[in-house]
Specification:
Blueprint: E1 3-7, E2 15-23, E3 28-36, E4 55-61, E5 76-81, E6 86-90, E7 99-102, E8 107-113, E9 120-127, E10 151-160, E11 169-172, E12 194-197
Antiparallel strand pairs: 1-11, 2-3, 3-9, 4-5, 4-10, 5-6, 6-7, 8-9, 10-11, 10-12
Length: 202
Amino acid sequence: MDQLILGQQPSAEDFSGRFKVVWTKEHLYLLVEITDDILFDQHADPLKSYWDDDCLEIFIDEDHSGGEHQFNFNAFAYHIALDNQAVDIGPNYQDGQTQFLLLNQHVESRWQRQSEGDNQIVWEVRLEVHDASFSVSEASNSRVSLTDGKTMGFMLAYCDNDGSKEREHFVGSEAIKAVNGDKNLGYKTADVFGELRLQAKP
């Protein structure tokens, strides 16, 4: 993860990250190695300004169709906090207010500091993959079985904050072309995601 989305490019001591992805029929598994000199979680409420705390963000577009997803489930942007809770934005409430959702049923997360390496942590995630039919209010069969050759839209990013009111750096795995000077587009459109192609072990 070395592509700057917001803020200034952090030094390697402030933040750096790399990751691996493996899969089974039931889940994606991520192993993320992060260097972060200060871990910061200022909001006890997991639905309040979660993007301004340190968090791992997994973007996934099940059918690699691209397109807008900020207020629907055409794609997902799972913000995984230091308390291992996962949040995304759902359809607006009837009064037009934004609906922030805990989607912990999709994500199992665990991170741990390492005894070797300065400020290094390893973050492990097991992720269910859901398609656009996912619904908050109604029962749905949105979970997808993973298969050899399946291609999905994918991006990984990290919000880094060392103690400020707002996040200081936002760094991801994909180079994003700015629109009107803005690269922070992943939570709105899956068009900026990279490609994740599943391959069976030889």
